[in-house]
Design goal:
single chain; seven-stranded mixed beta sheet; two-stranded antiparallel ribbon; about 20% strand
Length: about 270
């Protein structure tokens, strides 16, 4: 292994558990060739040194790769992300999967609402699956909505509209409601990694009332904007299923399913109106 690789691996090893993986990702992001770079055949002429140095220095400060290169994969698409939006997570894809399971007819004309849309990953992914449907995506953050609109244009999504508001101001009967709201308690937020705390928006992560603020607010809102035929898909924290179920079922909503993530932890709740 050449001196360039050894030098950078040594520095990365002081900050990360898997320095080889970190370096390979950074090298390939800075690549100017069409094939993947491996240590065994690495040549410094294969990379843009300026891009590599800038991204390497930012990574040493714990900035996530997704924020450095403004790119994060979700569902079938590559989303633009920055410090104003939460990175889409693989477990959030479970909401898309569950919607498709419960609504297998993609040609049906549905009214879909995404509350706390952030990057727009849920709203846009569903809009692309249900091309005959109308999707509304809301967020309180104008900066987040700007990113969601960039992604909508980038992914060529034409059946979606964006509204800046605190949850939803106008009442309408939606067939499907999805949401990945903030749900970290103050304790949980204080104990997240620096990659999250320093480079992701607190407004998209932290919720008052020990992490349950938005679930309480949703419990008051949802019975007004859905019908008995509607279904609601909400992401939850892994220890919040019991309490969330109590909150929603006290507001004329019925829990249909608690969704497990890939580690068999509670990660979502599916509801309808009683």
């Amino acid at each position: 292994m050449n001196n360039f690789l050894n030098l950078h691996l040594k520095e990365l090893s002081n900050h990360f558990d898997y320095p080889e993986l970190e370096l390979r990702v950074l090298l390939n992001r800075a690549s100017i060739i069409d094939k993947e770079i491996f240590f065994s055949n690495f040549n410094i002429e294969q990379i843009d040194l300026q891009i590599f140095k800038e991204s390497f220095d930012r990574r040493l400060k714990k900035e996530p790769i997704s924020k450095i290169f403004n790119s994060k994969e979700f569902w079938k698409y590559n989303f633009y992300v920055n410090k104003f939006v939460l990175d889409p997570r693989p477990e959030t894809e479970l909401i898309v999967e569950k919607v498709l399971n419960y609504f297998p007819n993609k040609n049906k004309k549905l009214k879909i609402l995404d509350l706390c849309t952030g990057s727009g990953c849920l709203a846009i992914s569903l809009a692309k699956e249900y091309l005959n449907s109308k999707v509304t995506a809301t967020d309180i953050s104008s900066a987040a909505l700007k990113i969601a609109k960039i992604n909508s244009k980038k992914i060529n999504c034409n059946n979606i509209k964006f509204i800046q508001c605190d949850l939803l101001d106008k009442i309408s009967n939606y067939d499907i409601v999805v949401s990945n709201p903030p749900y970290l308690s103050q304790y949980d937020y204080e104990n997240v990694s620096d990659e999250i705390k320093l480079f992701e928006p607190k407004i998209a992560l932290f919720a008052k009332r020990n992490g349950y603020e938005f679930y309480n607010r949703l419990a008051s809102l949802l019975p007004i904007i859905v019908s008995k035929k509607s279904m609601i898909f909400i992401e939850i924290g892994h220890s919040q299923a019991k309490k969330c179920r109590e909150i929603f079922e006290s507001s004329k909503l019925e829990c249909i399913e608690i969704v497990k993530d890939y580690q068999n932890l509670d990660r979502g709740i599916i509801l309808n109106k009683t």
